[in-house]
Write a structure and sequence with these properties.
Elements lengths: L8 E5 L3 H16 L14 E6 L1 H10 L7 E5 L14 H9 L4 E14 L3 E6 L2 E6 L5 E7 L2 E8 L1 E5 L7 H4 L11 E7 L14 E4 L4 E5 L7 E5 L2 E3 L4 E17 L4 H10 L1
Parallel strand pairs: 1-2, 2-3
Antiparallel strand pairs: 4-5, 4-15, 6-9, 6-13, 7-8, 7-12, 9-10, 10-11, 12-15, 13-14
Length: 270
């Protein structure tokens, strides 16, 4: 896959001290190599560099409307699962980039269509989109896969995660780890209730990417749920149905080490 080589690179830091200092150093080094670093986001750029932690990466993608310009991350945060490059490795990153010593990974997104009694709202998520009860209330949700009834879920809520999001909230909730290039969604229960009165699946389910997950709250809970998109809470009144699909929109990330995913799993989680 080929991308525009305009010589323009967007640098998108968060506001902490280490990120700002790294941004200054990176800007000087890239400009010395002939690249242009705009003051504001430029839609004609050839690369987006996010500086910070995983939250900075997610915000950069959302704030720039899921741009098709490839992303790469410099980690000045904590976990840094999206952020492959360490600040002390900037010189080798620039050399590898100039010499095309990288490959491009396509990141699949989850799309939710939140329908109320009066409107439908479309959301895109990188890691996950979650349905939860307000103030940790138990919710009761009817779950369908391609219009086949799966369960009447009772519990704190449900996570619908992407492959890259499988190591985020999903992993913390005992969901499965899914390799990023697999075209799947994952449905993971949050504190499911399993008793004589309620029967919910206790483990996550891997759903093929061409299938639709449809969730309908019981009418008593239409105003008692939150939709949380990559950590950002949204409240909508009178929700009657939320459907989830793997989006046709994708984003792209530069990867410099083919073994980075497995190294990340070991270094971050073990």
């Amino acid at each position: 896959m080929t991308f525009n080589k305009s010589g323009i690179i967007n640098i998108i830091p968060n506001n902490n001290f280490d990120s700002i200092k790294t941004c200054e150093v990176l800007t000087q080094k890239l400009e010395s190599k002939g690249f242009t670093i705009p003051k504001e986001y430029d839609a004609n750029a050839e690369l987006n560099i996010c500086i910070g932690g995983d939250g900075a990466f997610l915000r950069a993608v959302h704030n720039n409307y899921f741009s098709s310009i490839p992303y790469v991350g410099i980690n000045t945060g904590h976990l840094g699962f999206f952020q492959e490059i360490l600040p002390e490795k900037i010189d080798s990153f620039i050399d590898n980039y100039i010499n095309d010593a990288y490959f491009i990974e396509e990141i699949f997104l989850v799309e939710a269509n939140v329908c109320t009694k009066t409107d439908c709202i479309n959301l895109l998520g990188i890691n996950e989109i979650v349905i939860k009860g307000i103030e940790s209330k138990v919710v009761h949700l009817e779950v369908f896969i391609d219009d086949n009834h799966l369960e009447k879920f009772s519990g704190d809520g449900l996570i619908v995660s992407t492959p890259v999001g499988s190591t985020a909230y999903n992993y913390s909730s005992a969901g499965c780890i899914v390799y990023p290039t697999l075209k799947t969604l994952q449905l993971t229960p949050l504190s499911p209730i399993s008793s004589k009165a309620y029967r919910s699946l206790l483990n996550s389910a891997i759903i093929p990417g061409d299938m639709t997950i449809k969730i309908k709250p019981e009418y008593l809970y239409e105003n008692s749920i939150l939709i949380i998109n990559d950590g950002v809470q949204n409240k909508y009144d009178d929700i009657v149905e939320v459907s989830f699909n793997m989006s046709k929109t994708t984003i792209f990330r530069l990867v410099f080490d083919k073994d980075m995913y497995w190294n990340n799993l070991k270094s971050k989680f073990l």
